[in-house]
């Protein structure tokens, strides 16, 4: 004799068609058949690239904080992989650096040991870029040779290589701006372009990894339950966060974070003194330390407010996984604001500057994950429990 079940009681897997729990949709169909190993292998490779890009961003930040970025004055993608191997070779590199404005105007009298310190930082930065390119090429080649590239993913994976190559070219375009004239550092807008592209690459890798973490059929079904309004709002938040990242790069490029160290005011006033004293006026938005820091602060406040609005909207989601994703995003946003304030008050020491930059990386990825789950919500049973990735 069978017993009556509560309408909220879970049905055992063996009771549902094809041995799958009810409410999870159909099992893998033709679209996913035979792709499991390829998707897992590709995702692992993307995770490796993701970790390397995060390290690259951190090393790039330290390279800037140690004023090491202009120590190598040539772009040699292949031959530059080998550092100077003799005293004579080191002297040649040092002589090239002594011809730069940074040496003449800021580091006059630098010793060989001091030069080697900044040289190794920049060499390591470039070497890591080469390593990322090598891991991309070898990984893609191996996936292709073993037939494990997921269906319709070849173009997307090639896009990553194209973005990486563009990043190398942008990096040299940035460095070259500080090798002539009277520039003591690289142009701030070129630094912002370089860092912005790094975050684009990181975001693309993360998005691809999110999609490969679930079968194509599952994503198609999940999208029917997506929350269009929340997805649109989180897309706006993503764009706003990217703008704030660019403004942060402008602050870093001219060391504006070390100029006004009081908070919440700037030199005792709401507006910094002489915010438009450079001519032509547009230069102030890239080179005026007070105005650039002011814009970064104001954008940070607005981003935080809008982030809370988006988080509040996520409270109405019926999906536990989606709400948790936005909870994590909002929590990290609070941490990042506090890190930013601490960095300003302490005059941007390297350790706080690096933490603030890594905080931006973490927040960026959490925004992308929350946005992803608003479009492709996780499966869950009728109780709202047991959501699966």
TrEMBL record:
Membrane-spanning ranges: 44-63, 128-145, 157-175, 187-210, 230-254, 294-313, 325-348, 354-373
GO molecular function terms listed in the Swiss-Prot or TrEMBL record: heme A synthase activity; metal ion binding; oxidoreductase activity, acting on NAD(P)H, heme protein as acceptor
The keyword Zinc-finger belongs to this UniProt entry's keyword annotation: no
EC number(s) from the headed UniProt entry: 1.17.99.9
Cofactor(s) needed: heme b
InterPro entries documented for this protein: COX15/CtaA_fam (IPR003780), HemA_synt_rhodobact (IPR054616), HemeA_Synthase_type2 (IPR023754)
GO biological process: heme A biosynthetic process
Keywords tagged on the record: Cell membrane, Heme biosynthesis, Iron, Membrane, Metal-binding, Oxidoreductase, Transmembrane, Transmembrane helix
A Pfam family that the UniProt record links to this protein: COX15-CtaA
Topology in the lipid bilayer: Multi-pass membrane protein
List of residues binding heme: 296, 356
Reactions performed catalytically: Fe(II)-heme o + 2 A + H2O = Fe(II)-heme a + 2 AH2
Main location: membrane
GO CC annotations on file: plasma membrane
Location relative to the cell: Cell membrane; Membrane
Enzyme class: oxidoreductase
Record has Oxidoreductase as a keyword: yes
Pathway field: Porphyrin-containing compound metabolism; heme A biosynthesis; heme A from heme O: step 1/1
Family, per entry: Belongs to the COX15/CtaA family. Type 2 subfamily.
HAMAP family according to UniProt: HemeA_synth_type2
Function: Catalyzes the conversion of heme O to heme A by two successive hydroxylations of the methyl group at C8. The first hydroxylation forms heme I, the second hydroxylation results in an unstable dihydroxymethyl group, which spontaneously dehydrates, resulting in the formyl group of heme A.
Complexes and interactors: Interacts with CtaB.
PANTHER family in the cross-refs: CYTOCHROME C OXIDASE ASSEMBLY PROTEIN COX15, CYTOCHROME C OXIDASE ASSEMBLY PROTEIN COX15 HOMOLOG
Protein name: Heme A synthase
